[in-house]
């Protein structure tokens, strides 16, 4: 039984299917980890989401920021604009509500104790242990799965608060957790989320640090698998796997086998 993690799909159905063929993925034996952002920007969001849902029994995925945009659009709390144009077909599909209901019940973080590996879309906060990350994710998951989920989806937008405090409550607390798990790339020296810069670490201002390079992180040696950061690209280290390799932009779609001492990297050409 193999465990493969794959980077951001963003509606790039054809490269996704080619990559599954390349790794000879067998849903009866293997497990697929997806870092989120299944939809938007690419040409086949509907087909991608339908196919991923069919893999449910062999699938582990976490929600990304673009998945949350879809849920907000479907709930009617986010204004439709040009940047969401590639999701028109999905939103008008007869099974859109069912697909979004399924998506709404996906987690924001997943931990495998045997692999000592945490799966998130963007990252986790330096002062959060794995247990704390899962607990914070669960707060958002509970709200997303409630009958009042649309209120959360409408209130999640914004960059404040930018720093974690246990005293945060209500939608401010949930917004910070969402931003941390689905949008974060850099932190300031004071641990504030710096959400307005998405470039490479080399191009960042001196006061910005990639979240995973912060000193004395609370998650210790647990391996973190994430996507979201196309400018960072593929990074495979003992305790870190970055998987967004710009498939949408014509670069590559990447899979990494996680259940081996030396993770195997497999890539196919991205969207054309």
Please, could you describe this protein's structure?
- This protein is α/β, with parallel strands linked by helices.
- The protein has one domain (about 5-150, about 220-270): Metallo-dependent phosphatases (Purple Acid Phosphatase, chain A, domain 2, 4-Layer Sandwich).
- The chain has helices at about 15-20, 45-55, 65-75, 90, 95-105, 130-145, 150-155, 170-180; strands at about 5, 30-35, 60, 110, 115-120, 185-190, 195, 210, 225, 235, 240, 250-255, 265-270.
- Strands 3-2-1-12-13 form a five-stranded mixed β-sheet, covered by helices on one side. The protein has a five-stranded mixed β-sheet with strand order 4-5-9-11-10, with helices on one face.
- Strand 4 and strand 5 form a beta hairpin.
- Helix 2 (about 45-55) crosses helix 5 (about 95-105), helix 3 (about 65-75) crosses helix 5 and helix 6 crosses helix 8 (about 170-180).
- The two termini are about 30 Å apart.
- The mean pLDDT is about 95.
């Amino acid at each position: 039984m193999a465990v493969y993690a794959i980077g951001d799909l963003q509606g790039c159905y054809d490269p996704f299917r080619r990559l599954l063929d390349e790794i000879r993925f067998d849903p009866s034996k293997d497990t697929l980890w997806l870092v989120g952002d299944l939809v938007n920007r690419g040409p086949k969001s509907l087909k991608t989401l339908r196919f991923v849902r069919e893999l449910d029994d062999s699938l582990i995925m976490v929600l990304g920021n673009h998945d949350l945009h879809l849920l907000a659009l479907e709930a009617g709390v986010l204004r439709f604009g040009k940047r969401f144009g590639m999701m028109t077909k999905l939103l008008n599909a007869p099974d859109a509500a069912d697909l979004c209901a399924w998506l709404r019940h996906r987690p924001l973080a997943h931990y495998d104790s045997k692999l000592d590996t945490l799966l998130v879309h963007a990252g986790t906060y330096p002062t959060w242990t794995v247990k704390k990350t899962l607990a914070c994710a669960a707060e958002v998951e509970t709200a997303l799965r409630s009958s009042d989920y649309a209120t959360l989806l409408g209130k999640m937008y914004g960059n404040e608060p930018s720093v974690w405090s246990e005293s945060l409550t209500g939608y401010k607390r949930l917004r910070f957790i969402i931003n941390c798990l689905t949008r974060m790339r850099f932190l300031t020296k004071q641990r504030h989320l710096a959400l307005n810069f998405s470039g490479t670490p080399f191009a960042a201002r001196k006061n910005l640090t990639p979240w995973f390079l912060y000193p004395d992180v609370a998650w210790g040696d647990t391996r973190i698998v994430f996507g979201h950061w196309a400018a960072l690209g593929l990074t495979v280290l003992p305790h870190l796997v970055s998987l967004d390799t710009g498939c949408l932009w014509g670069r590559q779609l990447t899979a990494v086998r996680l259940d081996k001492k030396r993770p195997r990297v497999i890539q196919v050409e991205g969207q054309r």
